[in-house]
Amino acid sequence: MSAPDGVGPSEGPGRAEGAVPGARRWAVLVTPVANRVYAGDAPRLLAAELVLVLGAGGRPVDVAVEQVAGLPYVVLSSPGDLDDRSRRAVASASTAHALFERRALPDGAEALVPVPLPAVDLYDDDLLTIPKYPGKTNEHVTRLLLDLAVAALEEGPAGAVGGAPAAARRLRLLDPLAGRGTTLHLALMAGMDATGVEVDAGEVDAHRAFLVRWLRTKRLKHTVDAGRLKVAGAVLGERLRVEVSPSKEAARAGDVQVLEVLRADTAAVGPVLADGSFDLLVTDAPYGVQHGSARAGGRGPAGAGAGRGGATGRDRGGRDRGPRDLLERALPVWVPLLRRGGVLAMSWNTHVLPRPEVVALLERHGLEVLAAGEDGALAHRVDQAVHRDLVLARRPGRAPAAAAG
After folding, report:
1. What is the mean pLDDT of the chain?
2. Of 128, 228, 329, 360, which has the maximum CB count within 10 A?
3. Contact criterion met (CB below 8 Å) for 188 and 122
């Protein structure tokens, strides 16, 4: 299911385009976004996201973007009340700030009545917002990727996003290009276990220093273990393992989440990680461009959300990080790590790798590319050199009964 062609900006309060008369109506206030370029696209992207995520539960919904009192809202129209699943979907959406029900008043005016949303993050969001460094991917994009990936994980036909939940157990996520761990941290906040692979020792060290300091500041019960990463006696790199509980009550109950980081070449971790051990593979591919303020082989300007770059397309480990060559080399390793029915969600720069080529690459390596985003609803400008798009793909087949919980 993809966002309808009619989703776009409109003026003034009114029912969503195509809404059924008499349906209940809601308005989602869009979170203010510091990045000026992304802020312009945020309402449109949120609308596309909610169409996909609410549709994944089989809920019919009409969506439009409106300016209400000069502020951007995504307006929803659907028969009946929003159930718990739908409210959780809105609460976890990438740029959803608050939810209101739109009610007509006797004098013809309209009131926005606040609707409480459930708390969905297990940890404080400064786990995402505190780190500032060159080339950090916009955390709103990371939320969008993860939100869509989880929705796509819910079983449905290959060309669609939708169906019943695929698993009751804790989900496991892999980011094979982890950087300093934004995706891994968001996975923790969502209640998942997370594993990242990053070849750059400086990135791994910076990630570890921040995460340990943050956990201590928050006084969360945790353990940290680090050591060599070996395969058949040969040293492949290093391994960082963090175990953490979101609360004292969770710790007493033995509810422990695991975050692991492997400092290694992403195309060499196949012997270390078990096939079929991840439900989700979520990553932001290198953008293949150089930004003036970035270090050689770096990842773009600080705070711009420009993501992964480099004049040569190589990281400091000397390995090719251009998206086309990287995907050709890494997909044969990544795909088997997904369980049957597991989902890959990836963002990348269409200026250096057009969408048809990405789709062909994923299909050639045995993935079923989903329809979400094929209409351009998820594409957006980052800067002059980067036009970012998102793609979702599923590993064919169904999870074994034991893996499905």
Report:
1. 84
2. 128
3. yes
